[in-house]
Write a structure and sequence with these properties.
There is one protein chain. Strand 8 and strand 9 form a beta hairpin. The strands form five sheets. Strands 1, 2, 3, 4 and 5 form a five-stranded antiparallel beta sheet that branches. A five-stranded antiparallel beta sheet has the order 13-16-21-18-19, with no helix packed on it. A five-stranded antiparallel beta sheet has the order 14-15-22-17-20, with no helix packed on it. The protein contains two helices and 22 strands. The chain has 381 residues and is mainly beta.
């Protein structure tokens, strides 16, 4: 008598046995029997075991694994988070979590730029490392099930990203250790209130400060080459106590700081939210040509003390030619390979994952997009 310490799972190919023990499980009443033949019926019994011995079998149960001929869902595959520059040498991306009765694995493929394919992996998240700074990379993702058929989805819409420039140092504030009252290497501090590095953030440590009006600045070493260049600054931020984190891009002119663009998040009062990405895009002006580009982090919109946290500062330039509509494979020409990708998504309706394909904003791939692609047929960029 007494509670069971484990259970013996037994299987037979004929009703009534003989049974073969296939598993001994403890601290759970669940078991998945794998490696079986689809369409074949198997018969199971279970017995309980404790210090007094083994119980009699429970009533027999039968199960027949089904043949899996269906790819995972969604099909075609979709992005949960399109590729984004993590720093000057790596890109992170996340596929939408797929479902299938046989289990799922994912494959991320770099179709242009010279990045790396992931191979088939269990995680829907992929970090491509060892890349070059300020280079455009294009990726797709597909999923397949883990049945013997290895049913595979059509690939996602290709998504492109430009890796961050190498000029911004200490993007993740990992190299400076954990210390209060510290200014990270490569940055200058102007202001009052507590500051320093603390454990946590999105990948190990983050920079924090208390006190409105304080700034953390870094000249990137990037000289603006022409009017109309486009730079994007991204920072992971978290704020509370009326703190309103702000990020800005500026250029230096005879000792003055001239702001090109900035963005901020509203304060959250006493609530500490999760880290989120603050993004700033700036277009260079005629006056900025030949000047040094700078990055500034600060607090805004509150006259007293405030708290805010910054992590993973990354800067990218997108002053290359605009994307040629129809070049879905990223090989700089609109041809039959791109038409194959396009037809997978023909008449599909999806406002979120089709945003890069949907030229007329109706959340649908239709005649308008086809005409745009036809207009660029065999065009190269």
């Amino acid at each position: 008598s007494g509670r069971a310490s484990s259970y013996l799972v037994k299987r037979a190919s004929d009703s009534g046995g003989p049974y073969t023990t296939v598993a001994s499980v403890a601290r759970t009443t669940h078991y998945t029997d794998g490696g079986l033949s689809n369409g074949t019926t198997y018969y199971y019994v279970v017995s309980a075991v404790n210090a007094a011995g083994e119980s009699s079998h429970c009533p027999e149960a039968a199960a027949t694994p089904l043949t899996d001929d269906t790819p995972p869902s969604p099909n075609p595959m979709r992005w949960a988070a399109a590729p984004e520059a993590y720093d000057s040498g790596s890109v992170t991306m996340t596929a939408e979590t797929a479902t299938d009765i046989s289990g799922v694995e994912y494959s991320f493929v770099c179709t242009s730029g010279g990045g790396h394919d992931s191979g088939w992996q269990a995680s829907p998240v992929y970090l491509d490392t060892g890349l070059q700074p300020n280079v455009r990379y294009t990726y797709t993702v597909a999923a397949r099930d883990q049945s013997s058929n290895r049913n595979q989805t059509a690939p996602s819409i290709p998504a492109s990203v430009i890796t961050s420039m190498a000029g911004v140092v200490n993007h993740s504030f990992e190299a400076d250790g954990i210390s209060s009252e510290i200014t990270p290497a490569g940055w200058t501090w102007n202001g009052s209130g507590g500051r320093g590095l603390s454990a946590g953030g999105t990948d190990g440590s983050y920079f924090f400060w208390q006190g409105n009006g304080s700034t953390l600045r870094q000249p990137t070493g990037q000289v603006i080459g022409a009017e109309g260049e486009v730079y994007t600054l991204r920072a992971d931020v978290r704020n509370s106590w009326q703190g309103s984190p702000k990020a800005a891009l500026y250029y230096e002119q005879t000792g003055d700081r001239i702001e090109l663009a900035s963005a901020s998040l509203p304060a959250n009062g006493d609530s500490w939210p999760a880290f989120e990405t603050l993004e700033v895009t700036a277009v260079t002006t005629a006056d900025s040509v030949g000047r040094n580009l700078g990055v500034e982090l600060t607090l805004a919109n509150y006259p007293g003390n405030a708290w805010s946290e910054f992590d993973n500062i990354r800067l990218s330039a997108s002053n290359d030619a605009s994307w040629l509509y129809g070049d879905f494979t990223g090989d700089h020409v609109v041809d039959l390979e791109d038409l194959t990708v396009f037809l997978v998504h023909w008449l599909r309706e999806d406002c979120q994952s089709l945003s890069d394909f949907d030229e007329d904003g109706d959340c649908r791939i239709g005649l308008f997009e086809f005409s745009r692609m036809a207009g660029n047929w065999l065009t190269t960029d």
